[in-house]
Write a structure and sequence with these properties.
It is a single chain. With about 290 residues, the protein is mainly beta. The protein has one helix and 24 strands. The strands form six sheets. It has a four-stranded antiparallel sheet with strand order 1-24-23-22, with no helix packed on it. It has a four-stranded antiparallel sheet with strand order 2-3-4-5, with no helix packed on it. The chain has a four-stranded antiparallel sheet with strand order 6-7-8-9, with no helix packed on it. It is globular.
Length: about 290
Amino acid sequence: MFDQHQVLLKTLCASLAVASALLALGRCSTATAAEKVLLAEGLNNPESAVVGEDGRIYVTITGKPDSKDDGQVVVIEDGKATVIAEGMNDPRGIDHRGKELFVADKLKVWRIDENAQASVYVDTDAFPVKPRFLNDVEVGPDGDVYISDSGSFTGNGVIFRIGPKKEVTVVCDTKTAPAIKGPNGLLADGKDHLLLADVSTGKLFRVEIATGKVEEIAAGLGGGDGVARDTKGRIYVGDVRGGKVFRVDAVGSAPVLVADGFKSAADIALDAQGRILVPDSRAGTLTALVPSE
């Protein structure tokens, strides 16, 4: 009888453990599920999105791989893409400063004014270190423009700062901050820091602008690309290699999966409604994610 009771007790405990695990999984999947709303399709390698001062969505289009001068910037309205600037090489990151747009184009930075006139803002020779692969753009609260250079994606990475007179300086690089291998997505974190997603290591860092000191915030983010933050302070990171979008709630916390199923979740952004804008380069789409919480 004693043995039977032990068997029954063990069976009951095992059943409760399974039920508890299933309930936890159910809460997790419900909490992280996000509705997908298709905003545009048929785009030729969309890379980065930003909501301009006018409330419209602007997207960089890299065009065909290894093809020069077919890069564009488009505005998305009513499911349609209208070209506002073209003739770029391989445009990637985009951000705005007032009515101006700034675009990283592999070896140079473009400026698009309020009349949609595009011109080279900072050319290759103006950089203190020759750029290899200019990737993301972030305009800080003071108006300075920050550019990530992914280098060889295993080293030679740099974060540049472009000042008010177009002077270019180095914030940090893989020599001063060896933890950084392939710097990609940038996001201002107040006026003194930047958040940086590393596409090579899948880590999220916080960079002190004045000193270049780097602090690891989170890991396990796949091919970390775009970085965005919602009104609750939660950080979102696109995984360009795994086709996922993650959320980071606190320093050192495990990333929460918000959405998957993309072919390449590139340089994300948030719109005024709190939706996460996801350019999918390989699928040629722009999707808005509506988080469930």
